[in-house]
Write a structure and sequence with these properties.
Elements lengths: L3 H12 L2 H6 L10 H9 L7 E4 L4 H4 L2 E4 L4 E4 L8 H6 E2 L6 H21 L4 E4 L9
Parallel strand pairs: 1-5
Antiparallel strand pairs: 2-3, 2-4
Pfam family, one: ADK
GO molecular function: kinase activity
Keywords: Kinase, Transferase
Length: 135
């Protein structure tokens, strides 16, 4: 686990790069809890929009694959790589057992009411139960 203050510093440093300033940025999977959301705000990192996934299906979380060479995440249903060489190199993350996914979903449902409360004025509901391009 990375301390929240270090996360905030790393994110703040990355978002200060020219590409983020010119093109914008997306944080996925962060903040995970209210403390991290407050840490971002106190660091001056305030998003214009925050998306709330109103559909999080466990079976979708069970199917990600990672390209260890490209460090990219693909999904067997919604985001399959077109390159056969990339397909051959995909591996399933070791920490995504069904039990671990259940724990992450439980933690998500416990923590996110507090995060959503902080961002309630800019919160957008997003159906994540569809292809990533549509999301």
């Amino acid at each position: 686990k990375i301390p929240n203050a270090l996360w905030a510093n790393l994110i703040q440093e990355r978002l200060s790069n020219v590409d983020c300033i010119k093109q914008g940025w997306i944080l996925e999977g962060f903040p995970e809890n209210q403390e991290q959301a407050w840490m971002l705000q106190s660091s001056g990192i305030i998003p214009r929009h925050v998306g709330k996934q109103h559909t999080v299906r466990q079976d979708l979380l069970n199917h990600p694959l990672i390209s260890v060479y490209l460090l990219e995440v693909y999904h067997t249903t919604f985001d399959w790589p077109s390159d056969p060489l990339v397909q051959q190199r995909l591996v399933k993350p070791e920490d995504l057992s069904e039990d671990e996914v259940s724990k992450k979903l439980l933690e998500y449902h416990r923590n996110f009411p507090g995060v959503f409360q902080i961002y309630q004025k800019i919160l957008k509901s997003i159906n994540a139960d569809q292809p990533s391009m549509d999301v």
